[in-house]
Amino acid sequence: MDLTEETKNMSINDQNLQTKRSGYIDWQEYFMATAFLAAKRSKDPSFQVGACVVNRDNKIVGIGYNGMPIGCDDDEFPWGKNTPSPLDSKYLYVCHAEMNAIVNKNSADVKDCIIYVGLFPCNECAKIIIQSGITEVVYLSDKNGHKPTYIASKRMFDAAGVKYWQFKPKNDKIVINFTGIDWENMSPSK
Ligand SMILES: [Zn+2]
């Protein structure tokens, strides 16, 4: 079923029903969608990635997207890629989504957690993932998998026993529509 349409009609369809509604998204879709929503916060003009760290109780403990470090002004630091001096391109400055999700965690640690991320982690993020105790990586795209950076990530994950697998979404899109829920016609709670 088209999830958009389903969401639009959910208050009508669910009225007076005794069973749970059927169109809800599952945990994996929810966590990957959360990573994608976080990516929308990125100011990077050419590359938006989000990450979501989840514990084994399905609780989100960290969310991040790629961005400049705290205190490093988005408008003053460079976002370019192929500049004559490396100091004028973004690479030396930007914090990747995985790093931000892990460092900004709201739990004591992320041991045995799962990280959901749009793009397969680079070697630097792979190190942080391993050192933080995360044991599973769920990614959507591995488009750069042939590059040394990502081959190195897999070599480290394999050695460290970090499981990784590609997420295949059941729905092409999950639309967040602020006017999509018909509050007026929803059954009142007693
Ligand atoms: Zn990275």
TrEMBL record:
GO terms for biological process: nucleotide biosynthetic process. Residues 26-164 form the CMP/dCMP-type deaminase domain. InterPro entries: APOBEC/CMP_deaminase_Zn-bd, CMP_dCMP_dom, Cytidine_deaminase-like, dCMP_deaminase-rel, Deoxycytidylate_deaminase_dom. It catalyses: dCMP + H2O + H(+) = dUMP + NH4(+). Its EC number is 3.5.4.12. GO terms for molecular function: dCMP deaminase activity; zinc ion binding. The keyword Nucleotide-binding does not apply. GO terms for cellular component: cytoplasm. Keywords: Hydrolase, Metal-binding, Nucleotide biosynthesis, Zinc. Its cofactor is Zn(2+). It comes from the Eukaryota. CDD domains: deoxycytidylate_deaminase (cd01286). Belongs to the cytidine and deoxycytidylate deaminase family. PANTHER family: DEOXYCYTIDYLATE DEAMINASE, DEOXYCYTIDYLATE DEAMINASE-RELATED. Supplies the nucleotide substrate for thymidylate synthetase. This is Probable deoxycytidylate deaminase. The lineage of its organism: Eukaryota, Metazoa, Ecdysozoa, Arthropoda, Hexapoda.
